[in-house]
């Protein structure tokens, strides 16, 4: 009998890739998709896995592997699909050789994202089929089905998940890995070279394939009807299916595993058998709008929201008009996200705040520099945007306007898309100062390696791309590497560089404190020497607290020994009592 184990959704997807015979996987880390690649590493003897510098590259790597005749995949979060849009729209016309699946994790509720975009909308625009599971077991099984359908219909597939599916657990039945025979590569210019004449013909072909797939969707086992009482019928998919079953166990349900294209005949038949039809889908009314366009009467976003996650209680209230007796939890104290104790970004933001600077920000832990008490990040839009934003400000208002502005970006984000933005500054004769916060990792998503760390996803040592070398190769003369905790040098360098009418790059080369497993230095505060000036509190370190009398106390269970507070104290009230190792 096959083994059954409890798995996270992301872990189950990795298992599905292994069982499906996937040979190549490329990804860029992004919550909630990151762990898929990290779980795939356990199958490194059978599957090649890598971190790519960005999602566009990851998709192109997977396309290349597919063209060579093997099953391949790319993984990313929903905003990462925007970065991959260029190859996505074109590979839709090209089709596949070996099966090709792109895993995209949406984030209803904005748990770790800058927007709530719905991948199904992007997929419809790109004419890419979409499969969506409802639990870990389906995540594994549907992933295997996606490869079979990809090869059957010559179509790349998007495998859509959400935060709730990615990070919830379920029972999964393990099966053996089955590797299909590699498909031979056959040179086919008309299919694989997307010049206008070929693309026109391929567009006709994919429309034909999509119609075939839409017809097949009516009989696919991943789309199923669960007929019960016919007073209420619900069309749903993904995690909302779980809420429907919990809130309305007696309702009839059409559960969709393929959400693009939709099985029209199946939906029309189901709708004819129920009195009132509801469409339950998180985020955009993707299913609802299509069903209504076919003249089928249904209820959806009139009573349900386009924002955030759903719940069983929400459906009870909206559809059944029940007022669930919910025991409200007692109010917990607010716990807004903050930089970790000892984070090297804190000293940089403290210095910028002290200098009354503004910062164009980027995507990473350092976005937290926007909140009090540091309050220096003025903009955050998307990966790599900080440098381009600063450039746009200068071109709009002149070089004097940005004398009190800098761009801040992390090392992983710089390698992702910041390189292009800095190149644009050089090419277009900009000035301005860019601070690269190099903490030697992709910190926000859980400390993944990247092209500048010297280690691959599989843990192998590799060449570490030199960030200073890249900057100098572009022709930038003013490139400096500084310890983030060297406050006098950091302040001096920032003041000097923003005053120049040239591009400057300041790299604060200080590893993330969570990477250092050595014994930390220990500091203590002497209340009898404390003058209650508050200088040590200004950076907002969570290890610094006040005694009832207003003097300072250091929580040694949180302190990581960075020494920033000691450097700021002019009265020797903070003392190093133990050296680190």
From TrEMBL:
Q: Which UniProt keywords apply?
A: 4Fe-4S, Electron transport, Iron, Iron-sulfur, Metal-binding, Oxidoreductase, Transport
- Main enzyme class: oxidoreductase
Question: Which positions bind [4Fe-4S] cluster 2?
Answer: 541, 559, 562, 565
Obligatory cofactor(s): [4Fe-4S] cluster
Task: List the Gene Ontology MF annotations in alphabetical order.
Answer: 4 iron, 4 sulfur cluster binding; indolepyruvate ferredoxin oxidoreductase activity; metal ion binding; thiamine pyrophosphate binding
Concerning InterPro entries, the annotation shows: 4Fe4S_Fe-S-bd, HACL1-like, IorA, Pyrv_Fd/Flavodoxin_OxRdtase_N, THDP-binding, TPP_enzyme_TPP-bd, Transketo_C/PFOR_II
Where does the source fall among the domains of life?
Answer: Bacteria
Q: Which residues form a coiled coil?
A: none
A Pfam cross-reference name:
Fer4
Kindly state what the record says about how the cofactor is bound. Answer: Binds 2 [4Fe-4S] clusters. In this family the first cluster has a non-standard and varying [4Fe-4S] binding motif CX(2)CX(2)CX(4-5)CP.
Residue numbers binding [4Fe-4S] cluster 1 = 530, 533, 536, 569
What does the record give as the reaction this protein catalyses? indole-3-pyruvate + 2 oxidized [2Fe-2S]-[ferredoxin] + CoA = (indol-3-yl)acetyl-CoA + 2 reduced [2Fe-2S]-[ferredoxin] + CO2 + H(+)
Q: What is its EC number?
A: 1.2.7.8
Q: What does this protein do?
A: Catalyzes the ferredoxin-dependent oxidative decarboxylation of arylpyruvates.
**Quaternary structure, from the entry:** Heterodimer of the IorA and IorB subunits.
According to UniProt, the name of this protein is Indolepyruvate oxidoreductase subunit IorA
Q: Which gene encodes it?
A: iorA
């Amino acid at each position: 009998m096959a083994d059954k184990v409890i798995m996270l959704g992301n872990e189950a997807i990795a298992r599905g890739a292994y069982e499906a015979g996937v040979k190549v996987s490329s990804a860029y880390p992004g919550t909630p998709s990151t762990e898929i690649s990290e779980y795939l590493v356990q199958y490194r003897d059978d599957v090649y896995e890598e971190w790519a510098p960005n999602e566009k590259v990851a998709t192109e790597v997977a396309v290349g592997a597919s063209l060579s005749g093997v099953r391949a995949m790319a993984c990313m979060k929903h905003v990462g699909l925007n970065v991959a849009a260029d190859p996505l729209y074109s590979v839709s016309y090209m089709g596949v050789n070996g099966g090709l699946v792109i895993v995209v994790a949406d984030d209803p509720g904005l748990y770790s994202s800058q927007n709530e975009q719905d991948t199904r909308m992007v997929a419809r625009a790109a004419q890419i089929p979409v499969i969506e599971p409802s639990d870990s077991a389906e995540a594994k099984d549907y992933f295997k089905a996606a490869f079979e359908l990809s090869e059957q219909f010559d179509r790349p597939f998007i495998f859509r998940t959400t935060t709730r599916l990615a990070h919830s657990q379920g029972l999964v039945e393990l099966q053996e890995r089955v590797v299909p025979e590699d498909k031979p590569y056959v040179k086919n210019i008309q299919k694989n070279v997307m010049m206008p004449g070929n693309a026109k013909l391929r567009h006709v072909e994919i429309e034909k394939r999509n119609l075939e797939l839409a017809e097949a969707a009516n009989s696919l086992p991943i789309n199923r009807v669960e007929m019960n009482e016919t007073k209420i019928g619900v069309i749903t998919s993904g995690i909302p299916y779980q809420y429907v079953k919990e809130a309305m166990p007696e309702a009839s349900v059409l559960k969709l595993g393929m959400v693009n294209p939709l099985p029209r005949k199946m939906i029309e038949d189901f709708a004819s058998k129920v009195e009132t039809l509801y469409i339950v889908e998180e985020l955009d009314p993707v299913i609802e709008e299509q069903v209504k366009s076919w003249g089928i009467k249904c209820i959806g976003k009139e009573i349900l929201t386009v924002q955030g996650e759903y719940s069983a209680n929400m459906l009870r209230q909206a559809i059944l008009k029940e007022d669930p007796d919910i025991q409200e939890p007692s109010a917990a104290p607010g716990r807004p996200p903050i930089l970790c104790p000892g984070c090297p970004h804190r000293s940089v933001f403290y210095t910028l705040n002290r200098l009354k600077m503004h910062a164009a920000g980027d995507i990473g832990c350092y976005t937290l520099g926007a909140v009090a008490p540091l309050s220096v990040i003025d903009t955050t839009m998307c990966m790599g945007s900080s440098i381009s934003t600063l450039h746009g400000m200068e071109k709009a208002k002149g070089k004097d306007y940005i004398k009190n502005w800098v761009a801040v970006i992390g090392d992983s984000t710089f390698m992702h898309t910041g390189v292009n933005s800095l190149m644009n500054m050089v090419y277009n004769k900009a000035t301005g100062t860019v601070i690269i916060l190099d903490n030697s990792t992709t910190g926000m998503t859980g400390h993944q390696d990247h092209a500048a760390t010297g280690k691959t996803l599989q843990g192998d040592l590799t060449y570490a791309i030199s960030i200073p070398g890249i900057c100098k190769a572009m022709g930038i003369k003013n490139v400096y590497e500084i310890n983030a905790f060297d406050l006098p040098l950091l302040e001096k360098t920032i003041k000097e560089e923003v005053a120049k009418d040239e591009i400057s790059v300041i790299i604060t080369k200080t590893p993330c404190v969570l990477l250092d497993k050595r014994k930390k230095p220990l500091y203590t505060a002497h209340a009898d020497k404390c003058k209650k000036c508050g200088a040590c509190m200004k950076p907002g370190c969570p290890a610094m607290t006040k005694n009832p009398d207003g003097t300072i106390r250091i929580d040694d269970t949180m302190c990581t020994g960075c020494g920033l507070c000691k450097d700021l104290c002019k009265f020797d009230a903070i003392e190093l009592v133990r050296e680190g190792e």
